[in-house]
From TrEMBL:
InterPro entries: NIR_SIR_4Fe-4S, NiRdtase/SiRdtase_haem-b_fer, Nit/Sulf_reduc_fer-like_dom_sf, NO2/SO3_Rdtase_4Fe4S_sf. It comes from Salipiger mangrovisoli. SUPFAM superfamilies: Nitrite and sulphite reductase 4Fe-4S domain-like, Nitrite/Sulfite reductase N-terminal domain-like. Residues 355-382 are annotated as: Disordered. Keywords: 4Fe-4S, Heme, Iron, Iron-sulfur, Metal-binding, Oxidoreductase. This is Cobalamin biosynthesis protein CobG. Residues 15-81 form the Nitrite/Sulfite reductase ferredoxin-like domain.
Amino acid sequence: MSAPTVRGWCPGAHRPMRSGDGLVVRLRPFRAELPAAQGQALCALAETYGNGMLELTSRANLQLRGVRETAFPPLFERLGALGLIDADPDLEARRNILMPLGWRDGDLTDRLHAALLKTLPALPHLPGKMGIALDTGPRAHLAADSADFRFELAQTGELMLRPDSAARGRPVAEADAMDALADLAAWFIASGGPAAGRMARHLPRAAVPGVWQQVLPRSAGPALVPGAVEADRLIGVPFGTIEAAALSALLRASGARAMRLMTGRLFCLLGGRGDTPVPGFVTTPDSPLLGVHACPGAPFCPQATVATRALATRLAPRVDGGLHVSGCAKGCALPRAARLTLVGRNGAFDLVENGAPSDLPSRTGLTPAQLDDLPTLLPGMP
């Protein structure tokens, strides 16, 4: 079997990606927020032009799946009319921005986001998967999420910019924040970063200048989990897959004014009724499905040779510390290490303990039936 194709770009609205069930069209909602009416309209588009499902990605974007080639032009026109895409394809591709929970209109995070939209077109060309985190909300919670340039608050409370995986960063005034970002991007390119593709892969090979090693970020806050957050409500999405009809019904019944997309396969309903039933979603922090990762798998992805999510659902309650079931070695759902990683290969699974999909497996050629007997494969597993 040939190695899986690793693409250096993400499927945007201007540049959809072909998959086993049609085109994948990814949207980057501005400020990671959809007003309720816009969210309901997007759900209708998913049902009309796609397979009726939306996916919440690891970077808190939304994507439509199963879009037919002939359906893409009218879908693209409707997305533009709803204000969900950039007119400039290059700007849309660059707009990989993580937003925190709890930001408010006009606060530091909102102002930085506005400044970023003006700055992105002038930044040097960077690898397509690179992104920016604005971890400047009431609590720090984006440190473990995928981003390369991190605006944070230092332990002293001042704004700072930190290259991903570096322990320290550089203090910056808000007025100078975008110039600092341009400086860090220029250093990344000049020091050979594009060959590595991501900041975290580059830093072990390149010495970070001292100016970027001055201050420590504030400590991370508690992990986000489903439940009430003041007047709002955090809701979990198993495997990141949302039935469009269910989301539309939830937005309508709850009376929420908007939904914000979060990392960790969560979204936040802003305002509305907090006791609205949410079938198909996760509303409690103890669900094992929030600790398991699985890509769509076969037959939805042409590079996958195994079905993934039914197996992941069965195994989720039995794996402490994280489970990842990947249709191939790319590991799209979780490119990092997990307590147990199962990687599809030639219709069977390789088993990796405490590693990533690309790591050396301890067992190979396992069937789903064998994996149901985890105590035999992994002594000490429940």
